[in-house]
Predict the structure.
Amino acid sequence: MAIDFRQLRYFVTLADTLHFGRAAALLHISQPPLSRQIAALEEELGVTLFKRSSRQVELTVAGRHFHEQAVRIIEALDGAVRSTQATERGERGVLRIGFTMSAAWSVLPPLIKAYGDGAPDVDVQLNEVLPRELNDVLMSGSVDVGIAFPWQRPAGLEYLAIHAEPLCAVLPANHRLARKTEVAVADLAGEPFITFPAATAPALHELVIGCCRENGFEPRIRLETHLQQTIVNLVAEGLGVSLVPWSMSKMQLPGAVFRAVSVTRMVEQGVIWAAGNDNPCLPRFLACARAFGR
Amino acid sequence: MAIDFRQLRYFVTLADTLHFGRAAALLHISQPPLSRQIAALEEELGVTLFKRSSRQVELTVAGRHFHEQAVRIIEALDGAVRSTQATERGERGVLRIGFTMSAAWSVLPPLIKAYGDGAPDVDVQLNEVLPRELNDVLMSGSVDVGIAFPWQRPAGLEYLAIHAEPLCAVLPANHRLARKTEVAVADLAGEPFITFPAATAPALHELVIGCCRENGFEPRIRLETHLQQTIVNLVAEGLGVSLVPWSMSKMQLPGAVFRAVSVTRMVEQGVIWAAGNDNPCLPRFLACARAFGR
DNA sequence: GGCCATTGATACGGATTCCGTATTGATCGA
DNA sequence: TCGATCAATACGGAATCCGTATCAATGGCC
């Protein structure tokens, strides 16, 4: 009562050979089943596909048209099987990455490149998120993996550190400390600080404040802004100083200079993902991140 | 061992309902066969399509992808069945028409229009052919039907008259006979005639020559050219006179005038086709031509 | 012109597949 | 803890399908 893929394969082979016996041999069946299946196919379609004499077989006009369609459909099934298998292996599909702006300056580009080289058919979607939003978008499943500073996370989120870098001081170019190649944190006491709000990126905020406290002073916070670039911009305008991850020094800006500081605490970044996330692309990405961490 | 359309339909229904019992009801089968067919499909694919607990079913990522593909494939089969049936009914496909230039001025346009209105999905391919080539292209199958003057045809070609029109005289505008509204053929005796070569369109050639002979003179053929339009052009240049089918008078050309002539013999046109031609579009076209003839 | 080889259709028996009923096992909610 | 729900499994009967054997028709060859 229903058309079968087997009938399509039989039909295509017969249409290619135009000979029941040879087609049956190619299909590794005997000739009578082939005759029956073709007859059944014509019956179901209500269309004569072959003009048969007892001596030769040829396609009708409708048969030629159905042949094209059948080949397309068989190829479509073949492709569907293959792409579905590739999907399960994580070799194709979509991987949505939520990254914080600071990751964009350090680990994100090389990590994406390394992953993309190994999984060229995966559509990597990059979404910038605020650090405080990361937990939510991971738990709701609207992104598959986040790249950010470590941060307190609810049960169900996993974390893997992949990168650590020191802080550096960013100073106005004409600042008195800009002449030194390395700055002691204590020297920054009393300077107006530009930081990001604790609510936006709590981990990094704590790190900067903690550094100052370890060196005996409470930073005087003059401005808060939630983008690292903006911090550097404001420093370049002479509005204050800041401590930022070393990778920010890639930002070449007249008016701002970056200087090493005497602190041992590092800014760590890592990948975060939901333990229950079943995106098949994720394991490969995590393997990539793990390799990147070493 | 092979994926079945039934499995695709079962899979799509289950993916839509995410409930074995309800999907089975929609498919008018009981639940166990559905479970088995889905399991068999997953087995053949080597891919887990559903994440099952004993309480709920949901698609995996690969399952979602396969769902899209399966829907596409089922629709493709459905479309293939329909279009193949339409092809056999002659409602879609290709109809190649070989027409002679003289038909283009008379019967071809309204006939094509009438046919096209009734069979809008048929791709009508129009090929101009020389009258003497028509038999060959019909017998070889490179066109399905010809529109031309009747002409001696080999066994296997059928002919149906659909149109007849009188001859008319075409004269230079400043010709002495141009002042009359009707011309007697005998008046053209001695005039330089422009005709087409006998080899190109034997039937029409014979008709024109025959007309003259019936009226007691042998036409003095000054020029021969195988396009009717060229004949009219040459007449307009004052190089001679001719007898052409009345439909050529649609050709408005300063310098040439068309005049009725006192002959009863008509120029007939009809459709010609190979008896063995199995293009399903042909019967409908011939029915159209038959209706056109009345 | 008659004989034989070729080719597709048909007949029939055996094996496989597949469906439906009944049942099990597992999980969630009360 | 018990019952309800839901998917998986067991099993028997029916339908399908394949292969061997055979038939019918056609074309080539002597």
Observations:
- Chain A is about 40% helix and 25% strand.
